[in-house]
Design brief:
This protein is of the alpha+beta class. It contains 17 helices and 21 strands. The chain starts with 14 loop residues before the first strand and ends in a 16-residue tail after the last strand.
């Protein structure tokens, strides 16, 4: 019928790649991403310096930060970047691990594809292996911890911060992290919930990392509005306003015709009266502190100072909300509606000098679950990296408190899973067995990379680890000791991680590998270029 006539289904200009070519391209792109972050894995990992289009630099070792900053073009590579983001949201840690694992799964699949194992068989095998791995994590590898096990929580925080540039002060920072998370932990419906977003993290460069401190209360990156205001208020009653204490400027240009000097006076008097009414409303409610999200007129600030009221203006909305939660106050829009019941309460509001700037401290809040961490460090790059490691550590400690299960780090968990999965593979049979074996093999990439980044011979390390995990005297806690590249008990070295990090990394890495493997056809519509190419252009 239609012999010889090509059927044009796709629009002209659409690019299409099918079959093996498509999957080979995808796998290569995903592996390229994995290779980029592999060298940052572990405390001995190297840092990356990222330069954005504006020339700003970031120096980091954090997988997700690196991948977020890098402008990735290839769709399969983008999927890998997504893995890092999911891992970050779920656990706050283990992002590099998840990406390295996904890259490794794909590398091993490539070999199977070359042996003509169908992608569907591979993905099925991977799913089986994942289920078994999760079962092993829960039943054999994980160790339960209690909220009172402070030392273990601190170890988890230290491990999470391990590879970030905070080496010298890890112990102190870990204690701050554990204390902060414990403060905000609450029991809801019989379950512990730790919403780490409640912890306010502020950073100020100057001083050293060791000056970083935990503050029971909220700190605002703002000084008081007027030099004559008191620097300290005891027994604070705080008005939280989200509208300006100013007279609205008319939007349409207006002109005031004044015929005699009395009129000027009455005009100014009117303005003054409005300001007075604002002050009266604040006084009537009984507030001695005003925190305003918008601006405050200089005249109002002057009057507030005269009344001995402490005021800060232009406070961030999120800070105002945190303050409301901490002090039990209500955010009020119209100053006229302000009443005593809306005021937040705190034992003290005061201004303190931090580095070159003044900050406002609200301490002794009525809600004990309000804490801030003030990060200090030599330069801005240092405080930024401290912030990133605290982010990981806060989430890690929160997951341990919520789930109550930990695993050994340093590649011990991965090697143990690999050994056990390899043994279990025989029971799977069929071609899927090959995929299960490939999955097991891939897990060894973690201890391998840890050893390699430490400058050791990965082959020797791996041989030692495998033998420590097999036989009668097998010890599931043996991982890489980065001090000498030898096998050692990770509980003794205090390298411990939440089970959630391990299990989520495996899950998301498997998911993305499956997704990439299932693609056998890439149909890309031509990019619509905003303007016709004017020659030149630049490469990506
Ligand atoms: P991720 O983004 O995956 O968390 P990291 O660079 O933080 O990557 O490295 C995490 C890995 O480093 C984990 O496997 C963890 O167990 C390991 N690790 C952390 N501290 C140590 C240590 N002191 N000795 C050995 N391994 C460690
Ligand atoms: Mg980490």
């Amino acid at each position: 019928m239609l012999q010889g006539t090509p059927i044009l289904v796709l629009k002209e200009g659409t690019e299409r790649e099918r079959g093996k070519g498509a999957s080979a391209g995808n796998i290569a792109a995903a592996r390229a991403i994995a290779d980029t972050v592999r060298t940052t894995l572990g405390p001995r990992g190297m840092d990356k310096m990222l330069v954005d289009s504006m020339g700003d630099i970031t120096i980091t070792n954090d997988g997700v930060t690196i991948l977020k900053e890098v402008d990735v073009e290839h769709p399969a590579a983008k999927m890998l970047v997504e893995v890092a983001k999911t891992q970050d949201q779920q656990c706050g840690d283990g992002t590099t691990t998840a990406v390295v694992l996904a890259g490794e799964f794909l590398k091993r699949s490539e070999y199977l594809l070359e042996q003509n194992v169908h992608p569907t068989v591979i993905t099925r095998g991977f799913q089986l292996a994942l289920q078994e791995a999760r079962r092993l994590l829960e039943s054999e590898i994980g160790t339960p911890v209690k909220a009172e096990d402070e030392a273990i929580l601190v170890d988890c925080a230290i491990t999470a911060m391990g590879s970030k540039g905070v080496y010298g002060s890890r112990e102190e920072l870990a204690k701050i992290v554990v204390n902060a998370v414990r403060k905000i932990a609450e029991v809801r419906g019989g379950k512990t919930v730790c919403d780490v977003d409640q912890i306010k993290v502020e950073k100020r460069h100057g001083g050293t990392i060791a000056d970083t401190q935990l503050i029971e209360g909220i700190i605002l990156d703002k000084e008081r509005g007027h030099p004559r205001m008191p620097t300290e208020i005891q027994d604070a009653k705080i008005a939280l306003l989200n509208s300006a204490l100013e007279i609205k400027k008319t939007e349409i240009e207006s002109k005031i015709n004044i015929k005699n000097p009395n009129q000027i006076q009455s005009f100014l008097d009117e303005e003054d009266k409005t300001f007075r009414r604002m002050i009266d409303a604040i006084k009537a409610a009984g507030a001695n502190v005003v925190v305003c999200q918008k601006g405050i007129d200089d005249v109002v600030l002057h009057y507030l100072a005269k009344e001995g009221i402490y005021a800060v203006k232009q406070v961030k909305e999120s800070d105002l909300q945190k303050l409301a939660r901490a002090t039990g106050g209500k955010i009020v829009t119209g100053i006229k509606e302000l009443s005593a019941a809306d005021l937040g309460k705190a034992a003290k509001v005061d201004e303190r000098k931090v580095g070159d700037d003044d900050m406002t401290y609200v301490t002794g809040c009525s809600n004990p679950r309000s804490v801030s961490i003030l990060i200090r460090g030599g330069t801005e790059h240092v405080t930024q990296e401290v912030e990133r490691s605290l982010h990981d550590a806060l989430k890690v400690v929160a997951s341990v408190l919520e789930d109550g299960v930990v695993c050994p780090g340093g590649g011990a968990t991965e090697i143990d899973l690999a050994v056990k999965l390899r043994k279990w593979a025989a029971s799977v049979g069929g071609r899927e067995q090959l995929a299960v074996e490939a999955f097991a093999q891939s897990l060894e990439a973690v201890p391998w990379a840890l050893a390699e980044n430490g400058g050791y011979d990965s082959i020797n390390t791996l041989i030692e680890l495998r033998s420590a995990h097999t036989g009668a005297s097998a010890n599931k806690n043996v991982g890489v000791n980065l001090a000498d590249g030898k096998a050692a008990d990770m509980w003794k070295l205090r390298v411990i991680e939440p089970m959630r990090v391990k299990s989520q990394a495996l899950t998301s890495a498997t998911e993305v590998a499956d997704m990439v493997l299932r693609i056998d056809d890439i149909i890309a519509s031509k990019k619509s270029s905003p303007a016709p190419p004017s020659g030149g252009g630049h490469d990506h």
